[in-house]
C-alpha cells in the first residue's frame, strides 16, 4: 500500500507528464529527440516489391518440389523424405521467431533482410550444385533397378544448402512486410493509404509467386532438367538481391529499440520474487500504475485473469518507486499495470494459438503425401499425353484462396454485415474455427479418395510404375482437386484471420512477432506431422505398413482418417478456448 505522500508525488508527476504530452502533440515544448524522417513511399516500392516478387519466386520455386527431388534424385525412401521435409519446413518456419527478436533488438530490419537475402542466394546456389554436379548426387537409375543411396558427403552438401535457406527465412519472413510498411509515413492520410496498398500488393505477389512456382518452375524441374529447374529460382533470387540493394539510399531504416521480451521477463521475475505477498484488495489503489505517455501502445486496463501476475505491480515499500512516482527504482522488482496486462495478453493468446499447430498437420499433407498419391495416379490431361507435375497439385489450394478472398470481401461480407450487425461479418475467432472444420473435412475426403485410388490400382490394370516401383493407378489424379481446394479455403479462413488476430491482440510494440507466430504454428505443425509419420511407420511397419514405400501396399487412407480424428478433437478444443478468450481492452 502506498503512502499519502507518494500518491501526491505521483499525481503531480501525472499532471506534469500530461502537460509534456500535450506540448509534443501540439508541436510545442522541446524538440522531439527523434530525427526527422524522410519517407519516399512509393518511390521505394519498385525495389521492395520487385525484391519481394523475385525472392518469393526463388524460394518457393526451390522448396515446392523438394519431396520429388529427394526421392528421385537422392533416392530417399518416401517416408524418410517426408520426415526430412517436415523437419526442414518446421525449422524454416520456426526460425523467423529468432529472426524477429534479433531484428528488433540488435540488427534492424534492413540489415536483417540484407543478410537473409544473401544467405538465401547462397543456399539456392549450393542446392543447384547438388543437381548439376554429378559428384554431389547419386547416379541415375531406371525403373526397377536398385538405386544407389547418397553418400554422407552428398548429404552434407545438401544440408549445408538447407541451413542457408533456413537462415534466409529467419530474416526475410518476419521483416519483409514490416520493412515495406516502414517506407510510408503512418501519421499522414497518404501514408496510411500507402501502407494498406502495400499489404495488398504483398499478398498479390506472394500468391502469384506461389502459383508460378507450382506450375512453370515445377514443370521445368520435373520434365526438362533439375539443374535448369533449380537454376532459374537461383537466378531470380540474384535479381531480388540486386533490386534490394539498388534501393538502399531510398529506404527508411527504423533503429532497433531493444527487445520487447525484456518487459515480459521482468514481469515474470517480479511476480516470482513477490509470490508470497497477498493479492491486492483494491487493484486501482494498490498497484503501480504510472502515467501512460506512449502515443503508439494502447493503454490497457486492469483485468482479473491471471491475478498471480498482479503481484509484480504491488508496491511493497516506498523505496521501490523513484522520487516523483513515475518510474520503479528496480524494473526487475516492480512493474507497471501496463506491463502486467501486456503479459496477460500474450498468455491469453497461447491456447488459441496452440490450436493452429494441430490445424497445420492437415495443411502440410498437401506438400507431402498428396504429392506421393499424385505420383501413383493418372496425371494425364487431355489426349495429347501432357502430365501434370505431381508437386503442381498444390496450385489448386492456392486457386481456391485466390478466388475466395475477393468473393468474401466484395460479395459475401456486405451481406454478413447486415445479418450479424458486425463490421467484420464473421469474427476472427469464428473464421479460425471455420478453417479448422474445413481442414478436418478435407482429410475425410482425402481418406475416401485415397481408398478409391488404391482399390482401382489393386483391381484394375495399372498405367506403369513410378521410379520407386509403385504401380500407377488408373484413377484420375483430378479426383484430389476437391480436397485441395477445401484445404485452400480453410487457409483463407484460418491463416489470414490468425495473422490479423495476432496483429490486433498483441501489444503494439510486439507486433513484429505477430507474423512470426503464424510461422511458428506452421513449424510445430510440420514437426508434429513428422512425428506422426514416424510413429505410424514404426507402429504399423511389422504388419501392413500404412505408409509403405508403395502406397498401393499401404493404407494411407487410415493415416488420413487419423488426422481427421485429431482435427475433430482440435475443433472441440478450439471452441473451448474461443469461449474462454477475452479480447484486449474488454472489461471484466
TrEMBL record:
GO CC field: membrane
GO molecular function: transmembrane transporter activity
Regions of compositional bias (Basic and acidic residues) in chain numbering: 12-25
Iron-sulfur is among the record's keywords: no
Membrane disposition: Multi-pass membrane protein
The entry's keywords: Membrane, Transmembrane, Transmembrane helix
Sequence segments annotated as region (Disordered): 1-35
Keyword tRNA processing listed: no
Domain of life: Eukaryota
Pfam families: PTR2
InterPro entries the record matches: MFS_trans_sf, POT_fam
Primary localization: membrane
Membrane-spanning residues: 110-133, 153-172, 201-220, 226-246, 388-408, 515-538, 558-581
Protein's cellular compartments: Membrane
Family: Belongs to the major facilitator superfamily. Proton-dependent oligopeptide transporter (POT/PTR) (TC 2.A.17) family.
Protein name per UniProt: Protein NRT1/ PTR FAMILY 2.11
Native source species: Dichanthelium oligosanthes
